[in-house]
Amino acid sequence: MPQVMEFKLPDLGEGLTEAEIVRWLVAVGDVVAIDQPVVEVETAKAMVEVPCPYGGVVTARFGEEGEELPVGAPLITVAVGAETAPAGAVQAPAAEADGEGAANAPRPLIGYGSDHSRPARRRRVRPVTAAVSAPVAAPVPVPAAPVAPVAPVAPGGPVPVISPLVRKLARDNGVDLRALRGSGPEGLILRADVEAALRAPEPVAAPVAVAAQGERIPLKGLRGAVAEKLSRSRREIPEATCWVDADATELMAARAAMNAVDGPKISVLALLARICTAALARYPELNSTVDLAANEIVRLPAVHLGFAAQTERGLMVPVVRDAHTRSPESLSAEFARLTELARAGKLAPSDLTGGTFTLNNYGVFGVDGSTPIINHPEAAMLGVGRIIPKPWVYRGELAVRQVVQLSLTFDHRVCDGGAAGGFLRYVADCVENPAVLLRSL
Length: 441
What we know:
Blueprint (H helix, E strand, L loop, with lengths): L2 E6 L9 E7 L6 E2 L3 E7 L4 E6 L3 E6 L6 E3 L3 E7 L20 H4 L59 H9 L18 H9 L21 H16 L2 E9 L1 H12 L7 H15 L5 E4 L4 E4 L5 E3 L1 E3 L2 E3 L2 E2 L7 H17 L12 E4 L19 E5 L3 E7 L2 E15 L5 H16 L9
Parallel strand pairs: 12-16, 16-17
Antiparallel strand pairs: 1-8, 2-4, 2-7, 3-6, 4-5, 6-8, 9-19, 10-11, 12-15, 13-14, 17-19, 18-19
């Protein structure tokens, strides 16, 4: 007999808490195979196709396209035949009380693996109510407290006022005598009652909150993740920025010479990345992070280089793993591969996490300089402006050279200005004279 299995939205990595449904890949009534993608979701980091660990017939879908679901919320239910039920599938609720938790654990999703960091949650078994229960005594009605009768107020009835002077005082000042409660005998309205009404402040209407006019864009998905990360960086990191202008003429000439021979083309970003990894080997304090819980600076052995990539979804920072072991040719190929995936929205969460240092080439936007915000929890970021012809003193004479502005924003907790300035000066020296880099290769 088939069993209906419920598949919930899994944790797609890096502690993500929700995902937005972009596109359903199956419909109710479709037959799905084990580990077949059933829905495409967008997290704060990437677009992901989610595979289902069950094979069978889809009986229900939860959530519409564009709806945001929290991790652990039901995605679909699948009717699985007894002979095709996957090993380790979650059993029907009637079997939950059997205590076979290991057999009922869902199989891991391909590409995500099992999450052993979370303790298993024990399901609570509700006690079964006995068929025959003890008679319950009927509740004893409690008599309501007597309420004094209230005499109806006749709209056209007489107003308890005797003095014509009181009537005139009220009429001249716009006081409604029917709204007053007299303090005289049997509720008679006196002159003092009218004067007290005149002295009473008029009730002020509560101000109505007026929403700001304009288009409202929810801070969610990628935009929300970027906002949270940048805000956290500014809250936690005491950053400082130093910058320098450098003559990049020799670097551009070296690149032209490299690309003149047969083989893959080398990008300027790849050359700058290779210079960065050499500089981080000299100044390892900038390839670190701060562990606030332990109150320690953690110097990281490997350089996982992030680089800023602008896409239609917004700013993304893919990470090149083990950049310190790569050649300019390898770096150039990896930059191209990750940029293409970023623009297609197909980066995996692992491609966007784990960076230790970021290279930000904002010169592609036609600007010279910037004071970038550090990509938390990293400790530094190198910014590169546009490379343009400028007047420059070269060998004692004024000449037109290819000039670039370099800026380094760093966490002042991990190093002082001497280390930051030394790092930036070494980068500038390599840009101006690429032969300097040969000493460390």
